[in-house]
Amino acid sequence: MRVVVGCDEAAFEMKEAIKEFLSAAGHEVTDFGVGPDETALYPDIAHQAATAVAEGRHERAILMCGTGIGVAISANKVSGIRAAQAHDAYSAERAQKSNDAQVLCMGARVIGIELAKTIVAAYMGAHFEGGRSAIKVERIKEYEKRMGSTTS
Questions:
Q1: Which entry of 20, 28, 77, 103 is 20 to 30 Å from 55 by CA?
Q2: Catalytic member of 65, 81, 116, 126
Q3: Could you report the per-residue pLDDT of 61-120, keeping only the tens digit for each?
Q4: Residue 65 among the catalytic residues
């Protein structure tokens, strides 16, 4: 699977570990995050990564900042993206199975690297179930289309 990872300076070490973890699992990984001793605004990183997913250049994204909140909010501003913050494996799995979330967000100041790997494994191993959840995801898309037609 083609996966983009991104982070600000608060999550550099976690991003590096997740990038290695994903590559070892056979995923094609593109890094949109900061390098060592670099800084970036997390909205810029999240927007770039979410746009790459929305445009079909990548299938999923894993975004990290201090709490995971900022990158989730920022990624969700990209049309067509459903980004979910998760700090446990069950939530990450359900983000994909129930909500077809293409973007997983985590906080490096909230969880450790080993837990992050467990969360990423649960998320990457899950697939959208459809069924009862499909109508809910379609409703989310309807609201997004309505909002897009009312903004200037």
A1: 20
A2: 65
A3: 999 999 999 999 999 999 999 999 999 999 999 999 999 999 999 999 999 999 999 999
A4: yes
